[in-house]
Amino acid sequence: MASVFQDAFNSLPVPPRVLTLLCGVYAAYQTRRLLDFVWFYCLRPSSVHRYLHDPPAYALVTGASDGIGKSVARELYDNGFNLILHGRNEEKLRRVADEIRARGSRDVRYFIADASDESHDFAKLVQPFSELNITIVFHNVGGSGIARDGIDSFTDTGLAGIVHQNATFPLLLTRALLPQLRTSAKRGPVIAQFVGSVTADITPPRLVAYSASKAFLRALSRALDNDEQLWGTPSGVRFACITVGEVQSNSHKATASLVCPTADRFAKAVVARIGCERRQYTPWMPHAMLNWVTGLLPEYVLDKTVATAMRQTASKTKNA
């Protein structure tokens, strides 16, 4: 049978033969992508428990007072991790810590810092936790509302605050934690994850500083991972950036749906895929499918579509 196909192929003129070969290569590539997609989202077992190594493992979650951060912290706690929570409102964060403590007997600590404030002493912020075995860092803090006007309508302080909250704060916190993470990595796997956004790809109008900051996190995570693995002896500390689409939370009061999961459902997908060995990925499968579709659109079509959606969202917010 194989010889029949070989003879048929050889009988073709050269151009159709080349085209057939290219089509075969493309089909094989797309088949591999499909199988990889099914494995990643439907079959792959969770590896988060690899990060539960002695001494007792801690996960540090920023922006844990509400939304994705709170849900991820709760999911990590239910998977056996002690917690270090970060937020800017102590009363609110204390309630979250007490709520999570009620779910078990593990340790829950926290620290307070406004991520938009540029005056923090990061070494001092993390010093109370310097003896702990931190194996997961989840950089969730961030956010920005839709601006009414262009960036020239912002004050320098306001614009810099958005960038600091979404980009500089996780960068400087990582710098302060890195020696400690390297120590933890001598005992077992360690990972720091940055929460990116689909806005880094679709770059909506009126979210200029936010989108740029999220794109920075994507480059930062890859550069840090290369720095720790490819320059000198690998430290064992890994970095990744996840792409997040629309998620329902108290700060984003959308209707929950397949493409807009609740924070709790999204957190389960996030935690299940921690340690998947990918440096950039989308944890929620419907978000990944949407990203694939938008990637097929011509840039000008995508930009106009996103701008229209942003105007509609801004109008609803204004009239709410």
Automatic annotation (TrEMBL):
One of its GO terms (molecular function) is oxidoreductase activity. GO terms for biological process: fatty acid elongation. One of its GO terms (cellular component) is endoplasmic reticulum. Transmembrane segments: none annotated. Signal peptide: none annotated. It comes from the Eukaryota. PANTHER family: HYDROXYSTEROID DEHYDROGENASE-LIKE PROTEIN 1, VERY-LONG-CHAIN 3-OXOOACYL-COA REDUCTASE. This is NAD(P)-binding protein. It comes from Daedalea quercina L-15889. The lineage of its organism: Eukaryota, Fungi, Dikarya, Basidiomycota, Agaricomycotina.
